[in-house]
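Hey, I'm writing a tutorial for new members on how sequence and structure tokens pair up, and I'd like a real worked example in the thread rather than a made-up one. If someone can provide the structure for the chain below, I'll link this post from the tutorial.
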Amino acid sequence: MNIEYSDMHEFAKEELERLFLSVGWSSGRYPEKLVVAMRNYETVYSAWDGDKLVGLVSVMDDGALNAYIHYLLVDPDYQGYSIGKNLIEMVKEQYKDYLHVCVIAYNTAVKFYERCGFKVDDVASAMSIWS
């Protein structure tokens, strides 16, 4: 397997739809919106097996202090090959001079992020409004 990484922001809606739905994320039902979202993120790194999008991370930041990982997903057929870890390492390198790189992790992903160097914050909790 020869995975190549890119920092492009332009994706076909079909690529994003397939990847997001492969991990069961409802965002995949809105591929046109995902295309726009990827264009608007400050940082996007993607992983490719040939012309197949197999992983993606997107980050929002304030330009100086804080960066927020929004999406990190890897096609289930490609999990276990360090793709997610490599994408996170790219983010950590990009934001090494920032004070905080934050992620809101689903409970099933906490151990993964801990292996990547993140710590569960005991003074803050993730909160959200779902529509």
